[in-house]
User: What shape does this take?
Amino acid sequence: MNQYLSYSEEVKQAMEAGKPIVALESTIISHGMPYPQNVQTAREVEQIVRDNGAVPATIALIDGMIKIGLSDEELEMFGNSKNVAKASRRDLGYLLATKQLGATTVAATMICADLAGIRIFVTGGIGGVHRGAETTMDISADLEELAQTNVAVVCAGAKSILDIGLTLEYLETKGVPVIGYETDELPAFYTRKSGFPINFRADDEKTVADTLRVKWDLGLQGGAVIANPIPAQDELEPELIDSIIAKALKEAEANGVKGKDTTPFLLAKVKELTEGKSLVANIALVKNNAVVGAKIAVAFNQG
Ligand code: PSU
Ligand code: MN
Assistant: This one.
């Protein structure tokens, strides 16, 4: 067992009993949603995972340890504290060595889940190739992680603060399978469609679980993206969200926002400009992903 891993009692027992486990990230709590909706959503998502037959393991860095499974007080702390670092691959060593609070991104959560032997991970959206990346070179470390770490990420696609087409090209180059869950098109987070077709479609969790098993049985390193569209009743109008994202991108540029601050800035701006509608949609799609992710974890565990 890795010396930096610390399991919650619930996760420890689940591992001993061989139960399916679903990893959850903490950047979405600390940097992706405002308080108190972030903590409430995190709790509800954990419960949805339990209700669908798996055990939730929210991952974060505390006091020099990688926590696999957080207590209620720890969830509250990550949701309501100003001094939580956003932790991606590059940050793990430093933040653990200096015993800081770190909220793990998709990339870092994949690394920690892999260390703990957890193969299925649920979140809202992945990072990707940013618009204008041909000059800024802003490409999320999430994509490189998907290329090398054996964890499947259930998400609602990539949001159009990113360049969705280039994100798909990058994933293709790196050999990362993108599987549409009951869809032939990559969902665009707040909306069910992006206009970008994807190569694989699965209409049930067994197909996803079998695909992952064969990929890893073959020794093909890397993750997979399971793209699960936001439920129809929760999606935002594409025209509304597109114009708002355009505005948010302009403001980010005008304010000189760069590096790890870009994604949180854009998310907060979109929330403000949609008067909270984007937050409601974000919460709905994460919960929907939790249902699907838990079922995939159960199917994967049975194989
Ligand atoms: N997309 C969202 N919500 C989020 C994030 C992305 O809709 O909270 C977070 C995830 O933790 C993701 C990270 O891994 O942002 C990507 O940040 P960056 O673009 O700096 O790599
Ligand atoms: Mn970036």
